[in-house]
Amino acid sequence: MKALLLIAIAMLCTCALAEDDDSATWIERGLQLYKGQSYQEAARAFDRAIELDPGNLDAWLYKSVAMTSLGIEISIGLADPGIVDGEASRTAAFSQAVAANERAIQIAPQNASVWIYKAGSLDHIGFFTDNQSILNESLKAFGRALELDPNNADAWHGRGVALIHQSQKLGDTSRYEEALQHIDRALELDPEVEGAMQNRAGILSEMGRKEEADLAYSQVIEAANASADLAGSWHSKADAFLNQGKYIEAIDAYDRASAIDPKDPWTWRMMAFAAGQIGWYNKTLQAYDALLALDPNASSVLFGKADALYNLRRFNESIQALDAAIKSNPEMISSWKIRGDVFKAQGRTVDAVTAYEKSLNLSERAIRTDETRSIAWIEKGEALRGLGRSGEALLAYDRAAQLEPLHFPGWLKKGDILMEMGRYEEALLAYETAIDVDPTFPRLWYSKGLALWALDRVNEAESSFARASQMGFDVKRPAEMVAGSGPVVASRTEIAPEN
Q: So what's the pLDDT on residue 77?
């Protein structure tokens, strides 16, 4: 399910910069900074606008968006490298977002759009902090917006997405039908409401209504074809292809979007992600280089480049990128882990152990801060796996797999370590669970094929390989062995971003 990053963001002004030192100028600067994903700097610009005009409604609303986006960025590990204590910084960002929304409501309590901003912020805060109480407050705020404006398509759409998020956190589909009704109402009121058609397709897919979902995705693509926003339309098509597991088509569409708007960082990020999922590491590298041209010090991008170079076996260049990533953000756990992988591949055992131990220490510190975040447990498992402590790694992956929101990386990593341990039946079960959670990732089907191959279930293995290949994955069969005759180790895999 594509997250709704604040319906309100679609309302943000993109006017040209003014030259006067007044609130309007600072709002415009903030919007430009926001577009460049510099959320802290954007919030500072909105703060300056508020200093000059404390009653400026737009400044308070835009600040709420910027701080919510910053909190989300911290949650998914893409934070400013200057942020050390992620949990405290995330809490502070979300608290400022809530405070900004409350001030906006004091200024304009009868304005439905103000309540939509508040509801959108609360939805994301509740989702990323696993807080059902906050999600309930989001639903109430959307309800208030609809009381003020019953025909507001954004409010209907937003409440539908909030219902989905609530169901996901509860681990069921109890409110999917109600969510679908809300989104259908939004589209009835405004067929072009931002993100609604794609979210409708996602709901139908998760409900198992494949034919309806396929039709809805086709409608997304048709709408994109008719859009005057060429870059945006290609991006929408790419997202739709990605949600259907059509990675090659998605990459082509992201390519077209980036050719029209080469300064849109999100297009390049998604291209890098899509290419990495099917093993197109040269394409992944191209996307990360484009991102570094926009922001040379982005630690998450430097890490991504290093990882692509590692997969291309360009180890010295990978180390150079990792050095830059660690200089930018010494606390980035995954950079230390990949550093260990590169050193291991070069036969530098002592250096590899040092890097893995650093990764392990950082991951354990992250767990002490918040033991409910699955990514920290996965990172601990990765470090332990690098150190050869397979049993402990398995326990860490198992813990990650049990945490909400249920997502495939924990199960995938659990399957990989079980393969290395020769426990193929258990590995197969882990991969099948990962596929049940998210069937559109080709690497899961490939890994399932490896497990089946190791169990001498060749026909079933070939079927899984074929499914991965259909999605664009570069399938490499274990050609040097006879099925069932020995260990098959799944290749190292990346953790997909949480969005």
A: 61
pLDDT at position 213, please? 85
Instruction: Assess if residue 88 is contained within a domain.
Output: yes
Nearest CA to 72 among 124, 126, 11?
Answer: 124
pLDDT tens profile 166-212:
888 777 777 899 999 999 999 999 998 888 988 898 888 878 888 89
| Closest among 258, 268, 238, 263 to 250, alpha carbons compared | 238
Compute the distance between CA of residue 300 and CA of residue 409 in angstroms, rounded to an integer.
18
Of 117, 149, 181, the domain-final residue:
149
Helices (H), 108-209: 112-128, 132-148, 153-170, 176-189, 196-206
User: pLDDT digits over 305-327, tens only?
Assistant: 999 999 999 999 999 999 999 99
Closest CA to 23 of 6, 1, 45: 45
Structure tokens at 472: 């664009």
Angle between helices 349-369 and 374-386 (to 10 degrees): 160
Q: What is the DSSP letter of 485?
A: S
Q: What is the pLDDT of residues 114-143, one digit of tens each?
A: 999 999 999 999 988 888 899 999 999 999
Nearest to 182 by CA among 202, 160, 162: 160
Greatest CA separation found in the chain?
Answer: 75
**Helices and strands in the chain, H and E counts:** 24, 0
Q: Could you tell me if residue 17 is inside a domain?
A: yes
81 assigned to some structural domain? yes
- Which of the listed residues 127, 149, 171 is the one where a domain comes to its end? 149
Count of structural domains within the chain: 2
Examine residue 130 and state whether it is found in any structural domain, yes or no: yes
Determine the pLDDT at residue 79. Answer: 55
Residue 484's CATH number? 1.25.40
What is the number of residues in the chain? Answer: 499
Domain containing residue 468: 418-499
Residue 359, SS3 per DSSP: helix
In this prediction, residues 39-59 reach a mean pLDDT of 93
Residue 266 has pLDDT above 70, yes or no: yes
Contact in structure between 119 and 6 (CB atoms under 8 Å): no
Spell out the residues 6+ positions from residue 47 whose beta carbon is closer than 8 angstroms to its own. 63
Concatenate the DSSP letters of all residues of 362-410 into one string: HHHHHHHH-TT-HHHHHHHHHHHHHTT-HHHHHHHHHHHHHSSSP-HHH
Token pair, residue 311, equals 């997969």
| Domain CATH number, residue 4 | 1.25.40.10
Q: Which residues are CB-contacts of 225 (< 8 A; sequence separation ≥ 6)? A: 233, 237
Q: Is the peptide bond before 262 cis (omega within 30 degrees of 0)?
A: no
Write down the pTM of the prediction.
0.74
